Amino acid sequence: MKVLILLLCAVLAQAKTVLVVTADAPDFVLAAGGTIASMAASGDRVVLVRVTNDDKDSWNLSAEETASRVKEEVERAAKVLGIAQVHSLGYRAGELGGVSPTEIRDRLLFYVRLVKPDVMLIPNPYAEYVEVLDRHYTGMAAEEARRIAALENHQPPFAQAGLATHVVKELYYYAQPFDPRRREAESTATFAPQPKVVDIASSLEKKLRASQALTTVNYSMAMRIRKRLDESGRRLPLLDVVNEESVRKLVEINVRKLAEIAAKDSGYKLAEEFLYAGPDYQVPAKLR
Amino acid sequence: MRVLLLLCCAVAFGQKLPLATIPPGKVMMVIQPHHDDHTTDYGMGGLIAKITDAGYESWFVRSSNDEKDGAHGYPHNDMYNLRESEAGTKILGMKGVYSLNWRNDYMDAIPLQELRAQIILLIRKHKPDVVLGHDPWGHYDRNPDHRKVARALAEAVWMAGLANVHPEHLELGFEPHRVPHLFLKARVDYGRGHEANVAVELNESQVRRKEKAYVAHRNVYASPGMARSVKAQLQAEGLTVPEFAGKTDEEAAVMIEEWYMDWISRKRGAENGVKYAEVYWYRGEFDHLPGLTDYLKANVVTR
Asked: What is the 3-state secondary structure (H, E, C) of chain B?
C-alpha cells in the first residue's frame, strides 16, 4: 500500500497542466487528439479553449442550431480525450479575420494566466495551405498570449484580479498535414520550433471516438463529399446511404490515414506531428 | 565528381513537377487584385488560354481600381486599365470582367469579410469548377492588394459552399457552391511560402495569346520609353538587336514584352521537361481532406 501511495505521489509530482487552444471543433482532435489523450492518461490536467462557435459547418441546420449542437459535441469529444475543462469563447466561425488580433490574444492571455499551463498546444499559424484561416488567426493570437503571459506590463488589471504572470515552458504547434514543408525546421532550436513526431498507437482509439463524437461536422463532411460526387456523376459506395454507421466508418478511415501520414518515416505506425518549442527554445542549454 | 554528378541529377531531375491536366468542368473564374494579374510575368495567361480552349466559360474579377498603375492620373488610369483588362481577357477567350473597384494599393485597410462576401456572391452566381488566384501563403509579397485579395479568395472558395455563410445570398436563388479545383500563383523566385506542385504544359498558340494579352496592357507595359532605354543601353555596349531595325520604339517595346513572355514560358517548360509551361500550386476537389484523398481515389466509381 505504501509503495502504491508513493508511486501515486511520484506520478502526481510529474503531472503537468496542459492548455490546448483550438480555433474550431475538429482541428484539435484531428491534429493533436492522440497526443492530448496520452497526456491526460498519464495524469496531466488538460484544459481546452475553443475560440469560435463552429456555427457555419453543418448540413441543413441553422447557424444557431449548428453552434448549439457542436458545443455539446466538442464537450463530449473532450471528455473522451480526458480533457478536464472546456472554455468556449464564442466568436463566430469564419469571422476571426475581422476581429482584433489583440482582443483574441488577450482573451487567451486570461486563460493562460488562469490555468497556468506547463505545456500549450496551439494551431500552427505558419502552416501553409490550411484553408480554414481561423486556425491561422487563432495560432497567431495564442503564440502571442503564451509570450506575454510572462510579462507583467501586459494587462495589469488581470494581476489586480489575482491572475499573476506565468511562464509556459513547452509549446506544441499543431496542424493537419497540408504544408509540404511542415517537417523542415526553419532554424535551430534556439530560434525556431523543431519537428517532433509523437507515437499515438496507444491513444488512437480515444482519438477516433473523440472524432466520431463530432457528429454535426462529420455528417456535413459526408454529405458534401456525396454532393460533389453526385454533381459529377460519381458515387462512393460507402456513402450510398449516409447514416450514422457510414459516417463513423468515413471518420475512422480519415483518422487512421492521418495517423499514418504523420507516422511516415518516423519509425512509428500511428503518430501525430508537431513543431515543438521546448526548454531549448530561446534559451540554449548552455545558458540555462 | 560523384557529388557533382548527384547535384547535376538533382537539378536536372529533382525539380520536375507533375504535369497538370485540365479538370472536367464548364466555368472558370480568375479572381485577382489587379487588371494585369491574369497575365503577368509569373502568371497565368497560358493556363487561362488552355482552360478556355477546353471549352470553359471564363470570367475575370479585378478587385482593385488600378488607379495607381500608369502615368495618366487616378481616374484615367482606372479607365485605361479596365479597358485593357477587357481587351487582354478577350484575347485569352474570357467572357467578361467584373471590377470590384476597391482603391488600388489601399486594400490593407478594407474589411476582409466585405471583400470575401463579394467573391462568395460571384462564386455562387457562376458556380466555377476552377478558380485561379493569388497564393496567400507566398512570402515577401510587397503588394497589400495581393495579400488581401489572396486571403479573401482562399476562404471564399470553400466558405461559398456553406449555407450558413451569407444565407441572404440564397434568397436570390443561389446555392452553396464549394470550388472544387484551385490553381494559385505567386512569384516562385520570392523565397518560401508559395510551393508550386504542378506544371501546366502550354502549346505554341497558348503562349502567343499569353504574349498578346500581356502587351494589351499598354498603359503599363510596352512603353516606347522602355524600348528607348534598352536600345541606349545596348548602344553603349556596342550592341544592336537586328530585329529592331525599321521598328518604332513602340513596336520594339511590344517585341521585348513578347520575348519576355516567351522566355519565361520556355524557362518553366525546360525546368519541367516540356517546351512551354507555367507552374502553380494546385488543390484538387478533395485535397482539403488529406486523410481521405487516397481512399476516395481508390473507391469512387462512375454512376
From this structure: CHHHHHHHHHHHHHCCCCECCCCCCCEEEEEECCCCCCCCCCCCHHHHHHHHHCCCEEEEEEEECCCCCCCCCHHHHHHHHHHHHHHHHHHCCCCEEEEEEECCCCHHHCCHHHHHHHHHHHHHHHCCCEEEEECCCCCCCCCHHHHHHHHHHHHHHHHCCCCCCCHHHHHHCCCCCCCCEEEEECCCCCCCCCCCCEEEEECHHHHHHHHHHHHCCCCCCCCHHHHHHHHHHHHHCCCCCHHHCCCCHHHHHHHHHHHHHHHHHHHHHHHCCCCEEEEEEEECCCCCCCCCHHHHHHHCEEC
